[in-house]
Amino acid sequence: MFKDPSYLLTMVLPMAALLSLASPAALAETLADVTPAVAVAAPVSVTTPSGLSYMITKQAKGRHAQAGDMFYSTYTLLLTNGKKIDSSFDRGQPFGFTVGAGQVIKGMDEVALKLGLGDEAVVLIPSSLGYGDKGSGPIPPGATLVFVMQVVEIRSK
User: pTM to 2 decimals?
Assistant: First the structure.
């Protein structure tokens, strides 16, 4: 689903912009206008106290990860300007990490506890939960990260 660049440009970036600006009702209306094929009955944007925002675009109701579990997802990472930074699809395999072990940026650890197995989501990670004021490689300082992801496996340790 996330391999198609047109999906990223027509759906993900507008969703990312809307996550921080619009009410849930406005999100649902905009998504219905953009494409009736999106399997979202009533998308809800959630912003956590830390500033992480996410919208589940397909909820599968699978089990959720806990600290210490292995969390695997497929993803595409974009900047808010639409520039693609990374994608697990380019490597042909999901990305995995141990939840809560500090192996990834804070925003990924946090969202791993929010999504269930099979869920698809658009996630906005503020720089404070990402790479901060220093950036990293192609990620500029202060960048908000946009992850389009699907949880493909959760394994208990």
Answer: 0.76
